[in-house]
Amino acid sequence: MAQAARRKKSTPKRSVSEGHKSRHRAPANDDALEHGEKAHLSRRPIWEGHLRLSLVSCPIALYPATTHTNDIAFHLLNPKTNNRIRMIPTDPDTGPVERADLVKGYEFEKNKYVVLTPAEFDAVKLETTHTLEIERFVDEASIDRLFWNDPFYLLPSDNSGIQAYTVIRDAMAGAGRIALGRVVMHTRERLMAVEARGKGLIAYSLRMRNEVIDPTAIFREIPKEKPDRRMIEIAEKIIEQQEGPFAPDEFKDRYETALRKLIKQKERGEKIVAAEPPEESNVIDLMEALKRSLKGKSSSSPSKVGPAGKVRRRSLR
């Protein structure tokens, strides 16, 4: 990662974001294991530098707005010894090598590489390695959702920059626009979209044009024929019946919850009984499936559309 993303070895000034930092702790009890812990801000920023709007700038730090620390992680073990397997870098000719001695190479032909040194990587550093400069302001609606990537909290990293930070924040909030700038993260330059949110700023990394596959080409082979209008009307009524607000607290990862429960059962030495696969019932036509759905008699699991417009319905369990 670029040197700018690392903390300086000297004692840093107290950051206004310090109060947000907290350690990621291992689950301390059964409830934490079964349901996971609340998400916490990372203790270290993913990038540090300056936010600049024309001649106004302030020191900032980017922190991931999402976390994977609550994900269940598994290790590969040797089933004969229960020892954890270690992945050792190995040269096919000379055997194990020290990871610190490895270099980066680009394969331009089969088994032929251009090797780059750290000094050569430094030679192509951009200003965006240290600065997120706002280049343009756009309407949020003008950014296709295919381009939105990861969210970050953009926080002032030093008290001396708070005034400039709040000026930029309030000006953006008043304009109602999204700011676009670029920054180097993980050895790549990323386009960033910055928006005012409450007392702070949120930045989203945006995918570059060559990272997004053109949907027009992907959907080209789908037939142009239109379905029966009566079916569409019934489907629209079903949509109306299921309308509601986006409430993220109502959506949980049910598979991970079941996995956490399984781990606790294994810890207690309980016998695990495999769940029976769902049975498939009769095949009905699409119109009948829509009518039943409208009446609220359909299964909560999605129906599977088969050949000739038939629907394979899962049985209720």
Give an account of the 3D structure.
- This protein is α+β, with helices and mostly antiparallel strands and 317 residues long.
- The protein folds into 2 domains: 3-75 and 123-211, Ku70, Chain: A, Domain 2 (Beta Barrel), CATH 2.40.290; 229-241 and 249-271 and 279-314, no CATH class.
- 21% of the residues lie in helices and 27% in strands.
- It contains 7 helices and 14 strands.
- The chain has helices at residues 30-35, 118-123, 162-175, 215-218, 229-241, 254-267, 286-294, and strands at 47-53, 56-64, 90-91, 95-96, 104-109, 112-116, 131-138, 148-156, 178-185, 188-197, 200-206, 280-285, 304-305, 310-314.
- The chain has a 7-stranded mixed beta barrel. A 3-stranded antiparallel beta sheet has the order 12-14-13. A two-stranded antiparallel ribbon has the order 3-4.
- β9 (178-185) and β10 form a beta hairpin.
- The two termini are 51 Å apart.
- The model is unreliable at 1-28 and 298-317 (pLDDT under 50).
Please outline the helices and strands:
Elements: H1 30-35, E1 47-53, E2 56-64, E3 90-91, E4 95-96, E5 104-109, E6 112-116, H2 118-123, E7 131-138, E8 148-156, H3 162-175, E9 178-185, E10 188-197, E11 200-206, H4 215-218, H5 229-241, H6 254-267, E12 280-285, H7 286-294, E13 304-305, E14 310-314
Parallel strand pairs: 1-7
Antiparallel strand pairs: 1-2, 2-8, 3-4, 5-6, 7-9, 8-11, 9-10, 10-11, 12-14, 13-14
Helix pairs in contact: 5-7
